[in-house]
Write a structure and sequence with these properties.
The protein has 3 helices and 11 strands. The protein is an alpha+beta fold. The relative contact order is 0.19. This is GDP-mannose pyrophosphatase.
């Protein structure tokens, strides 16, 4: 069965600093027409950073759209013409002050497939050394380090409840169990 929808027209409804909102008319597989509203996103990275003593680096920060604080893994958007692995290195250093000796690409996930093309590339960072954080202007966060088992429990208790961190912790567990080898970068 062919499930592809064909774009008939596209309208840029809004263009912000890095997000674009589109409204498209599409032809459905049965020939009927429909409207699709969606957000174009430049992509992002998420980092599972392990300290030399095996703790996972987390961040606590306020997220304005939800009106609350979250505990999450380090992450950030990919700048134009930037390689995702370079973004991961930059974001980890800027947000947490850590640099890593070893990097492993774990995979890519799409967190909002119903309304966005956002993709998040996940990286494991090991062999960390503290270099001093360099937060972006207007960025405020607290860096935490907890045992991986505790971070996993935090997903079950709801203390960690953002999808990128839950996916990342799941993939980290699979990697550590030898079920998801990853690619050295």
């Amino acid at each position: 069965m062919d499930l592809v929808e064909k774009q008939l027209s596209s309208e840029l409804v809004y263009q912000g600093g890095f997000l674009k909102v589109h409204k498209d008319e599409v032809a459905l597989p049965d020939g009927a027409a429909s409207t699709r509203e969606y957000i174009l996103h430049p992509g992002a990275v998420a980092v599972l950073a392990l300290t030399p003593d095996g703790k996972l680096v987390l961040e606590r920060q306020y997220r304005y759209p939800t009106g609350r604080e979250f505990v999450e893994i380090p992450a950030g958007k990919i700048d134009p013409d930037e390689d995702p692995a370079a973004t991961a290195r930059r974001e980890l250093l800027e947000e947490t002050g850590y640099a890593a000796e070893r990097w492993t690409y774990l995979g890519t996930a799409y967190p909002c497939i119903g309304y966005s093309n956002e993709r998040i590339s996940y990286y494991l960072a090991e062999g960390l050394s503290q270099q001093g954080s360099r937060l972006d202007e207007g960025e405020f966060l607290e860096v935490l380090a907890v045992p991986v088992a505790q971070a996993m429990e935090m997903t079950l208790s709801g203390e960690i409840c953002d999808s990128k961190s839950i996916v990342g912790l799941h993939w980290l567990a699979a990697h550590q169990a030898g079920r998801m080898p990853g690619v050295a970068v």
